[in-house]
Amino acid sequence: MRILVLSSVYPNTKQPQFGVFVQERIVRLARHCELVVVAPVAWFPFNRLFRGVRRSDVATFELQRGIRVYHPKFFSMPGVMKFLDGVFYFLSVLPMILRLRRQFPFDLIDAHFAYPDGMAAWLLGKLLHCPVTVTLRGTIVPLSKFRLRRRQIQWSLKGVPRVFSVSQSLKEVAVSLGVPPSKIRVIPNGVDPELFHPAGKQEARRLLDLPIDRTIVLSVGALAERKGHQRVLHALPDVVAKRSDLLYVVVGGPSPEGDTGPLLRGLIEQLGLREHVRLVGPRPHEEIPLWLAAADLFCLATSNEGRANVILEALACGVPVVATRIGANEEVVREGVNGLLVPLRNQDALSRALLRGTEIEWNHQVIAAEAKSHSWDQTVTTVTEELKKLVPQRAESATGLGPLPQAERLS
């Protein structure tokens, strides 16, 4: 089985944390089949000016963890005419994919995100007579509110033979758009139990230069408005008034969605939280377990998520979670058992939950054991079974991928 993975959200040397959750699934899928990743990068004539260097100077080819990853450019105007992104995406990557298919005759296109990736994959599938799968993630919620993009999402999801959803809540969104429920399989993201597991709190704090005697609440996520770090800051004054030892630590940096760093730093000064907040910037994915080990409580006051992997990773480390009652958060966080849920944009409820979360005697081993049952290996086993149903069996003599001697030139 040969798979072409199509995802505009995927790590690269400039943005190593960008779409790690997609990469984690793909790396494990590569153990079951041959695959190549095409991860297009949005481009515009004045890209560096509008999108910055990190999103502009991405290498056209990378070998990542033994997987060939191509980064062709696709035309996308910053902030305007976004309803054309799906078509521009398709037209921009088509020449490169036609060349790639001559060297790597893929059987199936596995697209991540409903738009623009799903739209482009559907068009490619129709042109190349190739089955397509689309994985639904959190972006379908805001994008489906735009009339022209909603129509394209409907066309593509109805037109492909199989749709995967990382949560039940996203499946319900797709069904509300007219996608037959029988076409959608819920396959949640997983967690790596070898990386995320309970560890010594004091040693973690020593290694990270964090105070041993403070109560630490941790958030991990890009400094984007929807992640809600600013909501936590607004809730903190009421918490620290009753718990003066509390320290809020934010791990994350700017993202394609924006940079709330200046806003957060302004709020810290305005609310008098300088002694209670640390913004530590982005950290490597493999370092996140150490930050989780150092925490007493994890918080994600997000306004939109498909299925936030970082919540499952926190739970796998035995850390209870305070999260907003949105999307798949309700499918993962069990009230009073492994965390607490609060209504979105209810500052008083968030303050109370943070305070209560630091006071409950949580069973950390039970929290970790339950989360570890959702492994990436289980996720990929199910995905592989579904993909095989769409791909005719190859002859035993079929050749492998081979060296692709001019691979770097394809894009």
Please write the CATH class name of the largest domain.
Answer: Alpha Beta
Q: Quick check: average pLDDT?
A: 90
CATH-scheme architecture of the largest domain: 3-Layer(aba) Sandwich
- Measured between the Cα atoms of the first and last residue, the distance is 23 Å
Q: What is the number of independent domains?
A: 2
Name of the CATH homologous superfamily of the largest domain: Glycogen Phosphorylase B
| Alpha plus pi helix count | 16
Relative strand content:
15-25%
Counting helices, strands and paired strands, the structural category is: alpha/beta
* Helical residue percent band: 25-40%
What's the count of strands?
16
**What strand order characterises the main sheet?**
4-5-2-1-7-8-9-10
Biggest sheet character:
8 strands, mixed
Shape: globular
Report Rg.
22 Å
CATH topology descriptor of the largest domain: Rossmann fold
Low-confidence stretches: 395-403
